[in-house]
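Field reference: "sequence" (input) and "structure" (output). Example, NBD/HSP70 family sugar kinase:
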Amino acid sequence: MTRESTLRFGAQTDEVTSLLRIVNMVRTGEATTRPEIGRLTGLGRGVVTQRVDQAIEMGFLADGEFAPSSGGRAPRTLRFCSEQGRIIVCAFGALHLRVGIASLDGDVIDDRHAAWDIARGPAETIDRALEMLDEILSAHDDIPVWGVAVGIPGPVDFDSGRPVAPPIMPGWNDFDLRRRFEERFDAPVWVDNDTNLLAFSERSRRPDERLDLIFFKVGTGIGAGLLSHGRIHRGANGAAGDVGHVRVRDSDTPCRCGKVGCLEAEAGGWALVRDAQRAIEGGATGALARHAEQGTAITPELIALAAMNGDALAISLIQRSARLVGESIAALVNMFNPAVIVVGGAVSSAGEVFLAEVRQRVYELSLPLATRDLSIVRSLGDEKEPLRGGAEMVREQLFEATFPRWFAAGRPLIREVMPVAS
């Protein structure tokens, strides 16, 4: 398609609207043949043919196999050309980083994981992530990157992509994360809180498009991702779901954020490690104490495993965390009325030792109507979840939020997709 014809086409609003809808119908599987498109859109056969031909010419769609015949000539299916671009995902955690590449269908193609302290700062952390991504990309065909997702364990201004006073990320405040990735991949970049990526991952696994869900992560830190009618709720400034720093009644424990009495300072993974070390120094015995005596580092994962294996100290730490977490979840249930709560993170890997206590507190403290159809479950615990969630977030931004701005170019361009920095 020439520049002139593209501009003429882009100026015709009705054609643009119907073309975008058709591409997204095929992309999501809502319609896979021309007759199905006609029935669902109300467009005439000739118009559908014209729009589909335009989408094929622009590289978004391609003909597939023949569909089963319903009595006449079997219609040919259409498929979305997910192979024409890649999505890059970087999921930074407090003590690790994960990177991967995904297709435009959201399937993770390849990934890498490394232990890493986010407190080492943005320059070193991004350099390491890019090294890992270069390793992955060198093993795959050279296909254009269409979008990049970056998840971080702290508050993010989603519009600017900059962290805002993240408690456990010294040196990251107001850092321009987008720039490094835009320069490297020449593609639009979105930065979000890590728990929002996990909520996106859960959404991708569930067919309900109007899902109300809370992903409550209890790892080294604590946070929540909120889905309202299938959409992430970030709030006015991107701070929605930052429940790790709500006040726990009667607590004066210092938190890493500089305040006192935060939920994270009482129930987060780093708090459990602190309390376990104090108890062992005070004479506590058991499997967890023996690990410490042998020089093994106490981690949230080790505490959770010890609790599952019956260690009394670990069980007491996990259950106290679960009670406090359950109280916070109950407040969210009363305000938000979700259908599903998914609990994830290293501390929650203690399984029913943790989840049973959470359920008990939620049902004790929540309104009967709010819990009537509520499901409280553990996440799958798959290490690729943040990567899948990041890919899902990019797909939403590309094909639902910004598609009309860049489709005429055939692929997303930074200047067409991303807002101009103020």
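The CA atoms of residues 91 and 151 lie 5 Å apart.
Confidence is low (pLDDT under 50) at residues 1-11.
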